[in-house]
Amino acid sequence: MSVLVYINNYGGKIQKNSFEALAYGKALADKLNTNVVAAMLGPAENPSELGAYGASEVFHNPSASFADHDPGAITKALSGMIEQSGAAVVIFSHDYTGKSIAPRVAARLKAGLVTGAIALPDTSGTFSVKKAVFSGKAFADIEILSDKKVISLLPNSFEYSKGEGSATVTPVNGEAEKSTLKVKEIKKESTKLSLTEAEIVVSAGRGLKGPENWGMIEELANDLGAATACSRPVADIGWRPHHEHVGQTGIAIRPNLYFAIGISGAIQHLAGVNGSKVIVVINTDPEAPFFKAADYGIIGDAFEVVPKLVTAAKALRA
Ligand code: FAD
Q1: Are 14 and 95 in contact (CB under 8 A)?
Q2: I need a labelling partner for 180 at 20 to 30 A (CA). Which of 37, 137, 217, 316 fits?
Q3: Which of 212, 213, 220, 231 to mutate to test the pocket of ligand 1 (most atoms within 8 A of CB)?
């Protein structure tokens, strides 16, 4: 009857999203008076450390052959662990991996699925999970009626912290099934900080006039320890790489602080960033729609305002 959380293992490195999912799983397990187990695939130095984030037990299959991230193979391996643990609720992060595996696992378990949850389930009476719908314009509370339940948690929706403790590690043997995918090439993002993991994001749009003007955006991001992002047209014209494109058709992010510089604030852009905790908009046009979504707005020319922010950020750092 436990809660099982899938931990994404990128070559021995566990990302923030998985710790958030584990903290969410632990809080849910406490509500249900049960324990939380973690499931992890691939080599990892010390899986017992997941105990410091709430796991009481870790099912660990260190087989290296999961390295190609074939969702079908991972689903099969994970299903065995879910069965072994007797878990009634399975939690994923709603990241790329979770998006591809959670529905497959739900189909195998014949479980009800809610993707992109933003809060702990309401377990008083029924089991209902809140998520944002219509590009963040409304919320839906979805009841899961099946005995088994699968939830994927929207990144940056749940706080986690590292505590004490160490988890029991249960080794799981077995190679992954032969992959039906052939990985031809893996292109790693060149950015130092992953966009979905960043607490602060500095984003710019067509108001920047050309790719040669991104130096000040990168400098500001660097001084603030932030990731850089952009609007879709900027990526489409090739001013910035596509992995920086945020919005409805790009990446959805929820940082603590989002700078929108020279971006109009079209609904399709807002759909990917309106979950940010604080939004700062810099735009020459006082009528730009983004100001309606802003916590702080500066009506001004990015080429005057951003260098001043860079100076202020450097002073703050010093
Ligand atoms: P613009 O609309 O050209 O706005 C530029 C802004 O910069 C203006 O507000 C202007 O006042 C301001 N500006 C100009 N000069 C300066 C200056 N010197 N200093 C400060 N401000 C200045 N867009 C996305 O971003 N993400 C998506 O995922 C996405 N998906 C889409 C999906 C569909 C199906 C469709 C139809 C569109 C989608 N779009 C998406 C496009 C979206 O509708 C907008 O066209 C786009 O977001 C506009 O980008 P922008 O704000 O950079 O450019």
Answers
A1: no
A2: 37
A3: 231
